[in-house]
Amino acid sequence: MAKGGKDNVHFPHRHLLGIEGLSPEEISILLDRSETYVNQNRRADKTTPLLHGRTIINLFFEDSTRTRTSFELAGKRLGGDLINMSVATSSVKKGETLIDTAMTLNAMHPDVLVVRHPDSGAVKLLSEKVNCAVINAGDGSHEHPTQALLDGLTIRQRKGRVEGLKVSIIGDLLHSRVLRSNVLLLRALGAEVCVCGPATLMLPDMARLSVRATTSIDEAVEDADVIML
Length: 229
Description:
Elements: H1 24-35, E1 55-60, H2 66-77, E2 81-86, H3 98-107, E3 112-117, H4 122-127, E4 133-139, H5 145-159, E5 166-170, H6 177-188, E6 192-196, E7 212-214, H7 217-221, E8 226-228
Parallel strand pairs: 1-2, 1-3, 3-4, 5-6, 5-8, 6-7
Helix pairs in contact: 1-5, 5-6
């Protein structure tokens, strides 16, 4: 995309593998673009030919209803040709490796792969072996960037901004890929983040993420502008 106005902006990355590495400006580009499709999804006619002729493959190595359906709906409403690959009945179950799968898919010349995988880093590996764009729909306990973008858009719509807000995230922190993506996005956009959970479910690298950690729910919700459970 070329540089220009709000509807013609420049996102420099071929893939969307995580929030980490995105600048605040790049995150805002994605949120601004997402904002333009909110009303489209509320119209009687929800389709647009934007992705006409483009092939999108949903490749989910983990079961998912909400995420896969969301990507399927988005692809169809934007006019793309959408294929859902059932890994449970694919050659992966016969012992085919991730690289074998990448080579097979590459030969089909898709335009976008949407991938969910139980192992952290698997989506990045796949992106290095294919010629198309890859979107991370969740990899292990690493990241879930599109969920964080959706959460960021929701906060921005409800509160009018993200910068300067006090956001508390409460729950199982250790096993949550959404948490890591949310923290990276919220911190990049200038929010103060507090995370709360049992001591046994804290992330080991909380200090690196520049968040305040507590095991007290009362402390976490005090003065919070947004609470994510």
